[in-house]
Amino acid sequence: MSEIQARDPFDSITKGCFVILPGEPRLIDGTESVETLKLRVKEYERTWSEMKNRIDSLLANINKFSIESIVNFVTNAYNDTSNFQNLNLPYCELPTALVFAGINIPDHDVLFKQVARTLQQNGHAVATLRSADCSNLKNTIGHMIEQLMNTQKDYEKDEDEDEGIDERIVFSKRAKGGSRLPKYDMQLLAGWYEHMYQTARCNDNGSRLVVIIQDFECFDPKLLEDLVLICSEYRERLPMVFLIGIATTIEILHDTLPKSTLSLLRMEKFSLLQPDQCFNALVNEVIIEESKGIKLGLAPFKYLTDTYLLLNYSISSYVSKLQYAVMHHYYANPLSFLSNINREEAQARLYLLTDEHLEIIRMQTSFRKFVEACLPNYQEVVKLLKDNNYLRSLIPGFIEEMQLYQKKFSVAFNFIYIIQKSLNEPSMRKQKYYLYFMALQETNGLCESDYVKSVVLHLRKLDCMKLREIVIACKEYLSQRIDDIIELTEAMSLLENFAEKLSSNDDSECELEREQAMLSIGERLVRSRAKAARNKTNSTNDTKLSKDVVGFFEALFRDNLRHYSSITLHELIYYDTVHLLKKAFNAQPREALQTALGQPNHYIRCDCCLEDQSAVDEILSTQNDTCILYKLYLEFGRLINLYDWFVAFKHVLDKAGPIEMNEAQYPLRNRYS
Amino acid sequence: MNFAQELALLYPGRSSQISTLIELIGQPTDASPPVIFVYGHSSLGKTTIIKHIFTQLLSATHYAFINCVECHTESLLFEHALNQFAGITPSFENNFCNWVKCGDVNEFIVRLRECWTDDNARYLILDRAERLRDMSPTLLPALMNLPALSCKDLKELRYLASLLFPIYLLPVKEGTMNRSEHGKLAKNIQQYFKLAMDKLYLRDISSSEWIKHASEIENNQNGQSLTSRRIEVPYYTKFLLIAAFLASYNPPRLDQRYFVKSNEGRVTKRKRKSNKAEKSNGKPRQQLLGPKSFPIERMLAIFYSILPERIEGTVDIHMQVNIILNNLTFTNPNNVDNRTLRDSKV
């Protein structure tokens, strides 16, 4: 193989393969030490694998429930037939699971593979049919049978190798006598199934033959009709189960399949992966909560969110964009190896900081702000700017502060989320990603935004009952996180205090009402007067209490919801560039084609065309034939006379040197066509 | 001498065709093939023989003779046919009225059942049937399937009955009603009937789900929650769909007027005039003529012009177009913008 490849002349661009080895991407004008370079690579790998694991487990969890119910359905598909026997339905209904998988088709492959794998692990034979592989009935059934029998063989091999070999012998023997069944004959499948299960497994089989039709919309409806009909004929012998993936709604099914086919299916519906929920969970888990290593700044976060919500609903593309961002952060930021350190590692890494690194730190805008804040203390400023060792000793403090900021931020952020959810104001309700977007957007901190101000305002208007609910919810949330953030213990105790007071108030009121209900009318009147008086004192108590609670929340928000750019050295962690992402993921095929045809040297960089940079529009004879033709085409009007086009083409080529008409005509024509 | 031989004498050289036809028709109560296609060059006697056979063999209300040249619209065709089946001729006495007004196939089938009072077969004879091709494209297939459409599906009836019967029996088993209280029992089952026709017939809920949920469906709208019909589509894809709709229903020559943002007043005035002239010509509006196919470039151009903000034409948009092409064939036949999209690709 390698010899053949080596001999390949690579005479065409499309065939050739260009590998550009970048060497070691040392930053800081190539003076970066190898250690820090390797550390950055290591950090990238660590961060990304951690993130990837979280994403994977999250996605698996989101679909876990529906996949489990699909597996259950498949397993029990033929068990409850006893129910129907006394009903005696006129149709042989095939159990069919309709899987609504959402509009985002590119992600379906992964999804259905996951489903197929789970089904196989449960001992079912699975065949996945895609419309691309199934152009006619013959190869559809061929594919189906092949996959069903193969999966079972693999499954068999795991358990006992010998039996698998026996199978093959049986098949080959059969081949010698008589004519062999073609690969696409259903009898083959039926015979194989009976052999495998009725004899070997002594009737003990929970195993079904599952046919996954992944992209129902793209299938030829006639073909599906036939397939369903055939499979329902074999229903008595083969426990077939259909799994139909639908990207749109159930109407498509009624639209494409005729009534006679539909009546052969016993359909149950399962829906996977609602794009909204999925996205919310993902952003919450990976972007908002994740506090190690990289964080996305405003521009990349907005870009990622926009492409997901506006353009494609594709989780996989979201994840790959995220990976690209992480990669770029560690690749291009020389300080990124400091982003994720703990106390033990700090010292070792600080030694690796060279003078150049420290210079870069001094160049960061957040550092400048820090220095400006120190300005009254002149000595300190000089030290910061001149003394490398002093600066080095400060860095762990910066990083710790930043980590603390993130933790506190996330708590306060979640408080806002909890509060706005329990407010009785539909207009105030926001999705979490949108809240986060606001937090990134408000450079003065989320607390200063109109939104949070109005949240606080609404909070003031609430009665004690509501307030108590909110306080308890916040308390519960904080109690889960408190081990991580010891700094918020005080807030925790305050919350507990509030909760207690609020509930005691509440109880007394309830008791009053209960008492009142049991009294006679006369007494009630007397009591109600007394109650009114008591209520007065109560209400002043209440207002004071609620004022306290709101004041507490306000202070908490003000302290902890600062904008990330106010944190010194946030550049280590926050990734804030977006143009590279756009360049990498927003491919513009049309523009690229136009450039390639109009200015081929932009891509080819050949010597012959580079000479004259100024005249872009000039048609050079050295350019590719297609480019010449394209440029000529642009020069013509709406209609092109083919002969004129040809003559003009020849004229351009003649510029390089006259071509003898007789000699050149034939090859020229060839080139032209 | 039987009828076939008599006819053969009248129309020499056609004896085999005549006997075949008579065999196919058989007795009035016999089921005949759903479609009989009589083919031949002009003036070979097709119409004459058929007319003769039917007038002799069947009573007048058992067949309808339609000349497709005469009945050049769907409603004409259906109304003529129904008049003949119902035995009504528009005359002075009945104020020159049709038996009933009928515009489409569905209504035709309903009316057909109304006048179908006995077990005898009915024949719809379409003379000069080649003209049917010029009418609505759905008419010919519908007429071909007429027997299937008008006939009741025995299997379907059995299916529904077997699923509904246990529920019908339930009150008897529970002892709340007597076996002979048919009226009460029927009333009890009424609500399920509606549900069954809605959901079971379309297989919106499967038989197993039906068995599981029948008791629950009774008191709430569980059936609705079982079939939530919502489809979530990204923001720009919605605009793409709108653009596709606009491109398919608006004539291309009006594109500039509708979608180019800076317009000179004069041009629009003149165009409006021409538009008026068009209306007075009695031409139907473009939007009523149904979707037309269009080049994909046009759809994209409209897409970019209707968007509230400017975006770059990236590969994502093209991906979405692809997804729409492959998947979003909308179900409402009045709304088949995507079918036309597909046409444009071909």
TrEMBL record, chain A:
Domain Origin recognition complex subunit 3 winged helix C-terminal, chain residue ranges per copy: 590-656
Domain annotation Origin recognition complex subunit 3 insertion: ranges: 352-579
Keywords: Coiled coil, DNA replication, DNA-binding, Nucleus, Phosphoprotein
Residues in Origin recognition complex subunit 3 N-terminal domain copies: 9-338
Entry superkingdom: Eukaryota
GO cellular component: DNA replication preinitiation complex; nuclear origin of replication recognition complex; nuclear pre-replicative complex
Parts forming coiled coils: 34-61
Keyword match Coiled coil: yes
InterPro entries per record: ORC3, ORC3_ins, ORC3_N, ORC_WH_C
Principal subcellular localisation of the protein: nucleus
Gene Ontology MF: a single term: DNA replication origin binding
A GO BP entry: DNA replication initiation
Entries under Pfam families matching the protein: ORC3_ins, ORC3_N, WHD_ORC
Subcellular location as annotated: Nucleus
Function as written in the Swiss-Prot or TrEMBL entry: Component of the origin recognition complex (ORC) that binds origins of replication. DNA-binding is ATP-dependent. The specific DNA sequences that define origins of replication have not been identified yet. ORC is required to assemble the pre-replication complex necessary to initiate DNA replication. Binds histone H3 and H4 trimethylation marks H3K9me3, H3K27me3 and H4K20me3.
Family according to the record: Belongs to the ORC3 family.
PANTHER family found in the cross-reference section: ORIGIN RECOGNITION COMPLEX SUBUNIT 3
Summary of subunit composition and partner proteins: Component of ORC, a complex composed of at least 6 subunits: ORC1, ORC2, ORC3, ORC4, ORC5 and ORC6. ORC is regulated in a cell-cycle dependent manner. It is sequentially assembled at the exit from anaphase of mitosis and disassembled as cells enter S phase.
Full protein name: Origin recognition complex subunit 3
Organism: Paraglomus brasilianum
Lineage, uppermost ranks: Eukaryota, Fungi, Fungi incertae sedis, Mucoromycota, Glomeromycotina
TrEMBL record, chain B:
Family statement drawn from the similarity comment of this UniProt entry: Belongs to the ORC5 family.
Name of the protein in its database record: 8908_t:CDS:1
One GO biological process term: DNA replication initiation
Stretches of the chain forming a coiled coil according to its record: none
Highest taxon listed in the record's lineage: Eukaryota
Region Disordered, residue ranges: 265-289
GO cellular component: nuclear origin of replication recognition complex
Domain Orc1-like AAA ATPase: 12-148
